[in-house]
Each structure stands twice: as C-alpha cells, then as structure tokens.
Amino acid sequence: MSSNTFFSHQGPWSDAKELLLCSDTGSWRSKRPVLDEENCIVCGFCAIYCPVQCMEMTAVYFYANLDFCKGCGICARECPKNAISMEPEGAK
Length: 92
Description:
Blueprint: E1 31-35, H1 45-49, E2 55-57, E3 62-64, H2 74-78, E4 84-88
Antiparallel strand pairs: 1-4, 2-3
C-alpha cells in the first residue's frame, strides 16, 4: 500500500491544487497578529512560516487574513525585526 492511497499529496499541507484556507477561525481566537509597519522589512518570513498560510501580501506589507488566522503567534516569533506582536482579541 503506497502512502498516496488515502491522500493526493505527500506534503504536510497541500499539493497546490487545493485551497489551504478552508477552515475559518470563527470567534475562538484569543490573540491576533498586529503589524508595526515601521519595523517591518517585508522579508516574508511571516508568510513562509504561517502554518495555515493566511498571511496575504498587500501593495507593501504582509497582513494576516483574520478570517483564517488561528492566533498561534508563529508569525510574531519568526519575525527577525519583531514587527509583529500578538494582541488580545478586541484590543485596539
């Protein structure tokens, strides 16, 4: 039995033929990433390391799509310039 018997791909996330943003967060996220644009160097590490790939490139910066962000904080931990902080949900 091959490893592809049950799955169409062998990678941990996707074979690039399916949408990755398939499970919206709903109201259970307790923290959200907030970008400090002055410190951001647009390296893209936040997007590379985001496990659900919810970081979206705008005209200049990467921002989390909060409809799908789980609030895990990996983007903030991987940012080399500490330009992303995790703020409590509902904080300004």
